[in-house]
Amino acid sequence: MFSIQSKWRYLIMFLGIQLVVMALLSREGYQKRVTYFIRIFRKPDGGAVSGRNHTTPTISGGDVYANLSHLPKAHGHRDDTPYCPKTSPLIGGPIHVSFPSRLSLAEVERKNPLVVRGGQYRPPDCVARHRTAIIIPHRHREHHLKFLLYYLHPFLQRQQLQYGIYVIHQAGNYTFNRAKLMNAGFREAMKEEDWDCLFFHDVDLIPEDDRNTYVCDSNPKHAAIAMDKFGYKLPYKMYFGGVSALTPLHYLKMNGFPNNYWGWGGEDDDIGVRVSLAGMYITRPSLKVGRYKMIKHKLDKGNDVNPKRFNMLAKTRQTWRADGMNTVEYEVISREYLPLYTNITVNIGTEAGLHPPPRTPGPAPKAEAKDAAEKLKEK
Q: Which one, of 209, 217, 208, 210, lies nearest residue 244 by Cα?
């Protein structure tokens, strides 16, 4: 009798364990949970660095500058310099991202001795296979820009790219227009170099894995597939925001970006629709690789939510050929070749145009009243 009861007890326990395992596996994030339980029974790694701020228990990030210390300090390109390998040996995978309060641009400059005037770089010991321009729409976000430059320069160097960083700064205090700034950035960057890929990059997003290569695909690429603010998941299928990449041919095929989205929201979805309407589709890295950490901040002053965005999106099919790269108007106010980036300040005008005609002043209210009184006297 005792043995039968024991068998039933073990059978119930076994079934219970199976149900628990099935419940864990059926929920989102099961891989993290399973890995966690496995790690309980694994001996701790004696060489692990403690105290790191991991984004998840399974991903440990390394120092983004770690693999660059052995690079030559000067460019030694000759006629017989070999091409860089197809896969860079400097790529290390996950990157530890934090935001030290005392970081300065001078420190970023010191840590990137091979970056030359205007934020340009090419590998010192091989000829890059890819030339990538980074376009950053910007206004009043210097604090965020400092952190992005700190991580982005070594991130791109580890991929052995020839690259240039362009910050497109909107002049004035009129409502922010991200997409129009990116149109201006495309045109100005292509004037300087025959870039074969352009990455359009929000200033507050830091890449967390250098296997997310900043090179273009055969179709438009959405690189920021997994942001921490969305739980490292794609929020919806057509999302094309944050960080995206186009070749010049892709860009011209879809007529660039819309110019009429003033304020926050809508332009990313419009761009995603343009990709489809131009006969292309969106490619993405894996969720494991396309990870980004967002620098927390409040909605910017002058970048309020665009109340017209949904009505505008509904008309994209009718407007995309008539509004974009072929109609963008702007003026370059200044171009500064700074140690870590090229800063291009542009006037992009307002909703009324680049140079709206002055309003014809009507008669003053007092004058109108006086004229009316005189007419009554005459009657």
A: 217
Tokens of 38: 């496995």
Q: What is the tens place of the pLDDT at every residue in 68-84?
A: 988 887 666 677 899 99
CATH number for 126: 3.90.550.10
Q: How far apart are CA 344 and CA 264, in angstroms?
A: 22
- Domain extent, residue 294, equals 88-347
Query: HSE (CB half, 13 Å, CA atoms) of 110?
Result: 5
- Residues of the chain above pLDDT 90, percent: 67
34: in domain: no
**Inside any domain, residue 216:** yes
Q: 3-state SS string over 281-300?
A: CCECCCCCCCEEEECCCCCC
Q: What is the model's pLDDT at position 69?
A: 82
Burial track 121-139 (b if 16+ CB lie within 10 A, e otherwise): bbbeeeebbbbbbbbbbbb
State what percent of residues in the chain have pLDDT above 70: 76
d(CA 277, CA 227): 26
Angle between helices 267-277 and 178-192 (to 10 degrees): 60
For residue 46, the model assigns a pLDDT of 33
